Fold this sequence. Notes:
The protein is mostly helical and about 90 residues long.
Amino acid sequence: xxxxxxxxxxxxxxxxxxxxxxxxxxxxxxxxxxxxxxxxxxxxxxxxxxxxxxxxxxxxxxxxxxxxxxxxxxxxxxxxxxxxxxxxxxxxx
Length: 93
């Protein structure tokens, strides 16, 4: 796995993790009864974006390290996912 591949893999994992972290522990304005005029009732009271980005970065780094270790160890290769390379039908020359 090259450097660019590692960065792209981390970015994908980071955004997938962010979408999960953004949903955890959210208190909406409707839940607290403190609705600000002009906002939707489901808008968060205190989104804590900086904290969520830090949590996302740490969790994504751990997940990335596990996946990168599996890829670099050779336990999982492209041949495991590509049905044509398994049977010698691929385009390897």
